[in-house]
TrEMBL record:
Plays an important role in membrane trafficking through the secretory apparatus. GO terms for cellular component: Mon1-Ccz1 complex. This is Vacuolar fusion protein MON1 homolog. It comes from the Eukaryota. Belongs to the MON1/SAND family. The lineage of its organism: Eukaryota, Metazoa, Spiralia, Gnathifera, Rotifera. Residues 3-82 form the FUZ/MON1/HPS1 third Longin domain. Pfam families: Fuz_longin_3. InterPro entries: FUZ/MON1/HPS1_longin_3, Mon1. One of its GO terms (biological process) is vesicle-mediated transport.
Length: 93
């Protein structure tokens, strides 16, 4: 099995899909919080919340329930390791 997104065309397709999901989330005419898109080559989930925005790409064969579980685990990990992953306080010296 070849690794995903090795050609320029694949990169362009992926970024166009991410741009599409982003556009749906930020469309002023629709107040969407979650956008899920399943295409031929991948499925994408975009989630807009007050404290964060997350975009994730999965295989098109992954069930929505699995996507939701994975996103929940990622968010739990990020929250638990927040101080190690992000600069929460900037102390000047």
């Amino acid at each position: 099995m070849l690794p995903p997104y090795t050609t320029n065309e694949q990169h362009v397709r992926l970024f166009e899909l991410i741009r599409y999901v982003y556009g749906r989330l930020h469309d002023p005419n629709h107040q969407l919080k979650i956008v899920y898109f399943r295409g031929e080559h991948e499925s994408l989930l975009g989630w807009l919340a007050p404290g964060f925005e997350m975009h994730a790409v999965f295989s098109p064969l992954v069930a929505l329930e699995t996507v939701t579980l994975c996103i929940d685990r990622i968010l739990t990990y990020i929250k638990r390791e927040e101080n190690q992953l992000f600069i929460m306080k900037c102390e000047y010296f």
